[in-house]
Each structure stands twice: as structure tokens, then as C-alpha cells.
Design a protein that fits this description.
The protein is globular, with a radius of gyration of 17 Å. The chain has no helices and 11 strands.
Amino acid sequence: MSASEFEFPPAALFSTIALCPWREHSPRVDGHLGDWSPEQRMPPLGELAGVEQYADLFLAWNERGLYLALEVPKQERIVTNRESPASGDAVELFLDTRGARTSHRASQFCYHLTMLPVPPGEADGKPQVIQQPIRRALQRSQPISMSAVRAATGVHEESYVLELALGAEALHGYEPRPGLRIGMAVVVHDIQRGRQLWGAAPDVPYERDPSTWGIVEHLAPQ
């Protein structure tokens, strides 16, 4: 077999590090992007693996927590499925609050959250945030403190916006500070466009291997 017959996914050849901007004021978490700046939009890392990037991802942090927003182009309606989220419209978030990347199996610092932008069977409403176990984990993470989680969806004419705020006390091991590096991967499921990945590649077992997740570094305040 010649060398030309071997193909390696880009994610297997190098690690991606994205810079997470600091913001003084926490976002309102109301399903709108009005208080998010262009500097908080993350680069389309999925393009490195040849994956279409149809959704925009925004990230930011401050000493109170980590903030995420997604703007996803909308078709006629949003369809969600709690029993099988990947078969409908959903967002998966994988987090390693220590960002160690030293093991192929998840530790107590690794989280898998699934977010349904609207409740199943409804056209709009409050999103559902579901914590799920990570397969083959060495240690399971503690239950996320939902009292420290805020989420909102705004359904607009041509897109929907999903916002998530994770308070510093929500995740075990998360101590936000300048220079902190955490592992992160985001997977958007869309019934029309398929799957979009950020911080991971489709050819690696990202759903159970935290060493395949990208790195997010917290920038210092300006």
C-alpha cells in the first residue's frame, strides 16, 4: 500500500487553540446577539476538516462564568427529539474544565451537555439543557448545578439564536481566570444541513475521547 493511500484527519495532526475573549458584563441571555461583539465570534475550525460551517459560534468569559451563543440558519421549523437528540435540531457541548488532554478517557472534570433549542413538539420556548454521561469514562463528572445555568432561545425570521451561561460554580473544576485552558467541542445537529463540528473532527471519537477536543484559552481583560 502506498503512502498516498493513507489519509489522516487534520485533527489527528495538530491541536487547535481558540482564544476566548473576556467581557466585563455578562450577556443578557435573551436569545438575541445584540450584546455580543464580532470579536467574540469564534473562527470556523470545522473547515480544517472539510466540514461545512453554517452556524456561527460566539464565546466569552469573565470571573462569573463561561458564555456561549450560537446563531443557526432556520428552515421552516425547528424539530427536536429528547430521546434521540442527534436525529433532530440540537447542540452538543463537550467540556473538560482542566483541559489536560493526557488521557483518551474522560475524567470527573469532563462534561457532555445536550441542548434542545425548543421543547419537543413546540415552535418556541425555553431550551432544554440535558447532562449526559460520557461513554467509557474513567470517572463520571458531578451533576451540573442547574441553578447556575441560564439558557435562552430566540426564534427569528431566518435563524434561531441559542445562548448558554455557565456560572463558575456550575462545573466541577472550572475556575475562570486569564490564561486558563479548557477542552471544548461543539456539535450542531440540523435536520436540513446535517452535522457541524467545532473543536473536533468527524473522523475521531470525540463523543468519548477528551484528547480530541479543541483547547479554549481565556484571554486577559483588555
